[in-house]
Amino acid sequence: xxxxxTTLRTPRLxxxxxxxLMLLPAAVLLVAFTHYPATATFIDSFFSTPRGRRGAAFVxxxxxxxxxxxxxxxxxxxxxxxxxxxxxxxxIALSLLMALAINGRIAGRSFLRLSFFTPTVLPMIAVANIxxxxxxxxxxxxxxxxxxxxxSSTNWLGNQHTALACLIAVAVWKDAGFxxxxxxxxxxxxxxxxxxxAAIEGAGRWYFFRRITFPLLMxxxxxxxxxxxxxxxxxxxxxxxxxxxGPDNTTALLLFYIYEVGFKFWDTAYAATLTVVxxxxxxxxxxxxxxxxxxRIHYQ
Length: 300
What we know:
With 300 residues, the chain is mostly helical. The chain has one domain: MetI-like fold, CATH 1.10.3720. It contains 13 helices and no strands. Helix 3 packs antiparallel against helix 10.
């Protein structure tokens, strides 16, 4: 009996060891590039920035106090919330609309799918330079098109009232095609019998979408929403190429401000403090989404 028990325990032990060994590479990467940097950043936020031979000194909450008194931080945070509140709903609505349009049997469906998805595969720097030409005052594509209707030349990226809106348009154009793929995959998983039953009952297209299609797409919408929020708080490439945070910090978002503080002004301690705030903000938003949408999600 003892021999049989030992024989049974040995395969189980090897199974557990094999499972942990399979997880080991991913766990090492997760700790090395996620948990350790986050922990080190949190610790660095309580120290001063080392200068030359002078090492970092413990300063407690001084960096956080300086952040509260920093008007540029509040301006960047406000810009980021405005940017996120504009980009997220526009991107989700446009991606869902495109997925619905190309899900049916229409002429040129493959070409439309390719054209909708093309902006996603373009490098972000290339996208920024393309739109930089579109927004160029005088000879840019946008001014040339509006000039046909009698509008005067406008410095789109140099105007405080239009600069942030220009970045929002670029982000929506870049990300909508990516999220469209997830909605298209979810739409193709829906049973066609639902549409047939709704048609027999006399339900219109809008009623069918509102009562059946969209509720069944809620798991995909939650996934897209989480990624859209993360994307809205990690934009930096377009700002560096197109506006450099100007004019007068109108387009300075939080991550761009962290980049400037850390790599332009070399104040790594204050940059770590701003990063901690950004991480806590993203964690709170992600947690709130899961708690709020969990009861509204219909899993198949």
